[in-house]
Specification:
Radius of gyration: 18 Å
Structural class: alpha+beta
Number of helices: 9
Strand order of the largest sheet: 3-4-5-6-9-10-11
Order of helices and strands: EEHHEEHHHHHEEEEEEHHE
Length: about 270
């Protein structure tokens, strides 16, 4: 076990890799791959794909010199994200996450669910009594909030393993970037640049966030949380918008690699693609 600067506990394996990728930027890994000949050189093409996952829109854009290879990678990433989403779907009483909360037995949990539960618990502990009322006591509250981001982190990891140089994934108000887009420009959502230090963004309320109903709304419209990974950003945004507590935003803003903002207006996020 080890502890990050933000106070979240981490475990060896896949979680450590996601944590490292979040703080250092997944794009930094592509230089060695290119030198090894695993990533083809040449002008980047942007390949886009849209799908629906758990009744919500999923956006995926990949920057890669080979359009066919990008399509194949995106198709695989969508399948991987669907697999992880099914594990964490608390609306399905037969999902592994629902079964866990029904019996509270960690024996036999798959690595993805065990990792997600550990992250959710760490974030909830870090926020402490900033979470108010029923929100604080609700079983599975933080896992519900971070699930969409965790799904995107899994998709980003899959794309990186396929040699994709840059990508942007969006789902239920959360976004996860890899590297840069064509021309070396950063990926941009709501005029906010996603960089190697903060490659993830969550903007709530979101029109397509159908699986939870915020208990309260923050003054000033929507909130945006930039973070080292999408699970963290989505969980913090969910906690702030659901509890209606400004203390959540204050605490989140002090965490390493996290930045909180307020945005005017309502509706679907504006992407610069």
């Amino acid at each position: 076990m080890e502890e990050t600067r933000s106070g979240f506990t981490a475990r060896q394996g896949r979680r450590d890799f996601l944590k490292l990728s979040g703080f250092l930027g997944l794009g930094c890994a592509f230089g060695p791959l290119a030198r090894a000949g695993l990533v083809p050189e040449g002008p980047l093409l942007e390949t886009r794909a849209e799908s629906f996952l758990c009744d919500s829109r999923l956006l995926a854009v990949a920057a890669h010199p080979n359009g066919a290879a990008a399509e194949k990678a995106l198709d695989g990433a969508v399948r991987e994200m669907a697999r992880v989403a099914a594990l964490l779907d608390l609306r399905d009483p037969a999902s592994p996450a629902s079964v866990f909360f029904a019996g509270k037995k960690r024996e036999g949990l798959c690595e993805d669910l065990e990792d997600a539960l550990a992250q959710a618990q760490s974030i909830q502990q870090a926020l402490g009594d900033a979470l108010v009322g029923n929100v604080r006591r609700t079983e599975g509250f933080m896992l519900e909030g971070m699930a969409a981001g965790y799904v995107l982190d899994a998709g980003a990891l899959f794309l990186q393993k396929q040699g994709i140089r840059g990508a942007l994934l969006g789902f239920r108000g959360a976004f996860r970037a890899l590297g840069n887009r064509r021309g070396g420009r950063p990926w941009e959502v709501e005029a906010i640049h996603l960089t190697k230090d903060r490659p993830a963004l969550a903007v709530l309320p979101a029109e397509d966030a159908k699986w939870f109903a915020p208990a309260a709304s923050m003054p000033g419209g929507r909130i945006a949380v930039l973070g080292p990974n999408a699970a963290c950003a989505r969980a913090l945004a969910h906690a702030a918008i659901s509890s209606g507590s400004g203390r959540v935003m204050d605490l989140a803003g002090r965490m390493a690699g996290v930045e909180c903002r307020t945005l005017a207006g309502k509706g679907t996020c504006r992407l610069s693609l």
